[in-house]
Amino acid sequence: MAWERETQSTPTGxxxxxxxxxxxxxxxxxxxxxTYGPLRFVPVAWCVKNVFLGRGKPLAVQREMLTExxxxxxxxxxxxxxxDNVVETPADPNEALRLLLECNEPIVSALYxxxxxxxxxxxxxxxxxxxxxxxxxxxxxxNWIQPDLVGMGFCLIKRExxxxxxxxxxxxDDPTPSEDFHFVKKARKAGYVVNVFTEVKSSHxxxxxxDTTGKVRTLRA
Length: 221
Hints:
single chain; Spore Coat Polysaccharide Biosynthesis Protein SpsA, Chain A; nine-stranded mixed β-sheet; three-stranded antiparallel β-sheet; globular; disordered N terminus
């Protein structure tokens, strides 16, 4: 089967979070152990979680179909989780999800590192007056950032956003670089602000290493 879905009863009043995982290729044991496993198998008292897995189709199509399944399930929020993205801080990904929920924003992303082997940059950008260009945000102060564009490695979105933003949410024919950029641009046109909460941090698997002192660094640092 191309799609997997699991349902569960919902205690009254709790948020219903659909954890949507678009997926191509293969997943690592690190991701399964540190991020997917706790989110999938460890219950929490403050929300109901349901996992929706996609595979075998282009990412834009997967995100579109996963969102439809999540809304049909009756979710209050969608958490997009990339299968190469691991939560660094806090160590418990369920606590990371709780912190994003407590932000109570329509769109809020973790701060996560771009997929690079040299240097640190983040998956958030400011638009250039020339719409074909973007500024990479390389540093920040404080714990609350409002960029123009973010990736969706670990991004929580309220149901209302999908109900207000016209479909298709992720499939596109214009020059936008990716399906998540396309969605964020449509959401901003609908009046939504994109937020990054820097107390929640994550990174791409394969771009970081830990030395003998326990310090996290890039592979070529």
